[in-house]
Amino acid sequence: MTFKHIFKAALNWKLEKNLESEQARFYTKSHTITIADKPVLNVSAAKAFKGNPHLYNPEDLLLSSLISCHMMSYLYVCKKNNIVVLNYSDTAQASLEVAADGSGRFTEARLYPKVQIANPHQKELALALHTEARKLCFIANSCNFPIAHFPSCDVL
To answer: Which of 70, 91, 108, 137 is 20 to 30 A from 127 in CA distance terms?
Structure first.
């Protein structure tokens, strides 16, 4: 049995008024994304693509979605296996290649999840469960590029 869930978001962008003719050649990349009952998300292009470097960009958000989804999938499988996770952190990175025609794609992502658990006898299982979490992760399952995991686990 499969379940279908629908997610909705609205994007709003407007041409900035009073742009000089030279500036008008480049549209501003800043815009807002609104999701019901949540704070407005201010978004732009990455600095490399003439965006506002102080705002989130789609590439930031894709990587953020990937590590967030992996963490939630991991905590789910740990709960199923009676592992108490005390802390979880990740310092992920992703590589984006841009072709001469301006098209681009992510070529890989590398996740470095670091967990702290309570029971020293569960360390090997805690590390192995990242593989199961990867299989369950909605975002990872939607990506068309390799995602590598380099987990570590400490016991407190």
So the answer is: 108
